[in-house]
Structure formats: structure tokens, C-alpha cells
Amino acid sequence: MVPHRPYGHILTDRELLPLLELAFRPAPGGLPTAPAQVQPASVDLRLGSRAWAMRAGFLPGGDPIETRLRTLADGAMSLD
Questions:
Q1: Which of 9-13, 14-18, 58-62 has the lowest mean pLDDT?
Q2: What are the pLDDT digits (tens) for 14-58?
Q3: Residue 29: left (phi > 0), alpha (psi -120 to 50), or beta?
Q4: SS3 30
Q5: What confidence score (pLDDT) does residue 1 get?
Q6: Of 34, 49, 36, which is closest to residue 80 (Cα–Cα)?
Q7: What is the pTM of this model?
Q8: SS3 of residue 68 by DSSP
């Protein structure tokens, strides 16, 4: 169960660990988030096989990431 928090509050590592299977979704073909990736002040995310150069940082809001990539990406490169 997701803890009830007002908008803008931070979840601790103890609150994030039970959410790994519920709230963290791996990229297609990616590995699930491992408990060792959850740190007290952060979550270590894995990179996929591509990286994009972006003109600006952004918060996706309700838009899919792919929509923001079309408008802000200056190029992509393989990380393989």
C-alpha cells in the first residue's frame, strides 16, 4: 500500500522498499528495481540502451516521456 502523503513530500527508503513491485516499472526488457538500489536519500536507477541529449530538464506531468522526447531531444546515442 502506498503511504498517504500530501503532494510534495519525500518518501524514505523504508517507505520505498515495499513499493518496489507496485510503483517502480522497468523499461521494456529491463530488470526490476532491486532492493540494493534503494538508498536512504535516493534510488539508483539503471540506464537503458539509449541516451538522449535534451535542450532542457523537465517534469513530464501527465504527458508520456515519448511526447517530451519529441519536443526537447536534440539527438540520441547508443549506450551498448
A1: 58-62
A2: 888 888 878 888 877 888 889 999 988 788 888 778 899 998 887
A3: left
A4: coil
A5: 58
A6: 49
A7: 0.52
A8: helix
Helices (DSSP H) in 8-76: which residue ranges?
13-16, 20-23, 65-72
Place of cell 537503458: 48
DSSP character at residue 79: -
Domains of the chain, by residue range, sit at: 1-46, 48-80
d(Cα 61, Cα 55) in Å, to the nearest integer?
17
Backbone angles phi, psi at 75, to 5 degrees: 160, 170
Q: Any idea what DSSP says for residue 48?
A: -
- For residues 46 and 31, the answer to whether their CB atoms sit within 8 Å is yes
- Partnered with residue 38 across adjacent β-strands are 43
